[in-house]
Amino acid sequence: MPSELTLTLHPRIADIPAAEWDACDATANPFTSHAFLLSLEESGCTGPRTGWLPQHLALRDAAGALVAVAPAYVKGHSYGEYVFDHGWARAFENAGGDYYPKFQVAVPFSPVPGPRLMVRPGTGVPHSAPASAMAQATEALKLSSCHVTFCTREEWDDLGEAGWLQRMGVQFHWNNEGYGSFDDFLGALSSRKRKSIRRERRDAQSAGLTMRTLRGPEITPETWRLFHKFYRSTTDRKWGSAYLTARFWPLMGERLGDKVVLMVAERDGKPVAGALNLMGHDALYGRNWGSLVEAPFLHFELCYYQALDFAIAYGLKRVEAGAQGEHKIQRGYRPVPTYSAHLIAHPGLRRAVAESLVQERAAMEAEIAGLDTLSPYRREDEAA
Questions:
Q1: How do residues 330-373 score in pLDDT, each as one tens digit?
Q2: What pLDDT does residue 325 have?
Q3: Distance between CA 53 and CA 28 in Å, rounded?
């Protein structure tokens, strides 16, 4: 880290002015925005209750101007990250080491790729500076390791050059190839897949439900109250616990405004299911969903097809539909790599993890290539 920069760690993001934080992210990613992270803290989603203790990194130059930031947390567990290191923790603890606490540079509970080590444009500060600062902080706090998850490819490359261990994952994203309508998108698919999606949409929309898209102030406190019930219906069924509180949704909605896009299904004028998205400058990011009713293909309609409709209408380049889900491939989403980087202090653990990651990366690259062969898009030699 350049000697003229000063590192501070902040237990509250409110200690850092919002305009200064956001100026460090040229991509304006909604998940790394001051407003989103502040909403998590003020609603009790991050903090002692969930074991995500903020220690946000800030670098300032000799004049005191903020030049780099990173959303960082000290953690005593590995939940809510979506890049799983439980096996590393068990191995180290079985050998007598203490894996926790550790440093996590991430957006809590959000497997959304984006910038993590954010440098204010035009400052001349190298992107290696916040990485070096995180390494110094990890050592100073006597933490076992530091993990930068769902970072950009550029950050991943820079961290790899700095000696961090590199890991890959996979998600499924949809790319807008300049489609003028949903039918234009369907026209790019094979005939069988095109018919299948049309049938799914027809069945979902004929279940006595009305689909609506709500943005910003159109989402009322009552709608947020209902959406929390939808969210809990999913978390209670799948995981048994919920990271996000009822207070989080309206706080986030108020602060992010029209960047919040909520797809809802209504019955008799009342929402009974919903899918939450956040909109960036070129992408729509799908996050949470839930339903109080059973209807055929409702999940696909709200989470995928409504999102594609919206992206096409607003000229967005991508829809990122979150973690997991090979079923997304048959609905036009394609596998893409995700990236994380890991700094591990103990030489023995570091060596073991490094060896395992070499094999894991090769397997992941092969898996992504294999999954892409399942694409529903028409080949050039295939008739429409």
A1: 999 999 999 999 999 999 999 999 999 999 999 999 999 999 99
A2: 77
A3: 24
Task: Return the pLDDT at 381.
Answer: 60
**How confident is the model at residue 281, as a pLDDT?**
94
DSSP of 33-72: SHHHHHHHHHTTSSBTTTTEEE-EEEEE-TT--EEEEE-E
With CA atoms as reference, report the closest residue to 30 among 94, 144, 107.
107
The vertex-371 CA angle with 286 and 112, nearest 5°, equals: 25
Q: What is the pLDDT of residues 127-167, one digit of tens each?
A: 889 999 999 999 999 999 999 999 999 999 999 999 999 99
pLDDT in tens, 241-287: 789 999 999 999 999 999 999 999 999 999 999 999 999 999 999 99
pLDDT digits (tens, 9 = 90+) for 170-180: 999 999 999 99
Phi, psi angle pair for 8, to nearest 5°: -135, 150
Span 300-304, average pLDDT: 95
The pairing of strands 66-70 and 56-60 is antiparallel
Task: For residues 96 and 252, give the distance between their C-alpha atoms in angstroms, rounded to a whole number.
Answer: 42
CA angle 358-363-365, nearest 5°?
Answer: 95
| 148 vs 156: CA distance, rounded Å | 9
Tokens of 207: 């279940």
CB neighbours of residue 37 within 10 Å? 23
CA 343 to chain centre: 21
What pTM value is reported for the model?
Answer: 0.95
Does position 383 have pLDDT exceeding 70, yes or no? Answer: no
Q: Tokens 């026209």 correspond to what residue?
A: 187
Share of the chain above pLDDT 70, in %: 97
- Could you give the CA distance from residue 277 to residue 303 in angstroms, rounded to a whole number? 9
- The residue length of the chain stands at 384
- The DSSP result for 317-371, as a single string, is SEEEEEE--GGGGGGT-EEEEEEEEEEE-SHHHHHHHHHHHHHHHHHHHHHHHHH
Q: In this structure, are strands 118-119 and 210-215 parallel, antiparallel, or unpaired? A: unpaired
**Contact (Cβ atoms closer than 8 angstroms) between residue 17 and residue 58:** no
Strand order in the sheet with 145-151: 52-54, 72-75, 102-105, 145-151, 334-344, 165-175, 318-323, 283-291, 270-279, 260-267, 210-215
Backbone φ, ψ for residue 76 (5° rounding): -105, 15
Question: Taking the C-alpha atoms of 13, 17, 23 and 25 in order, what is their torsion angle to the nearest 10 degrees?
Answer: 0
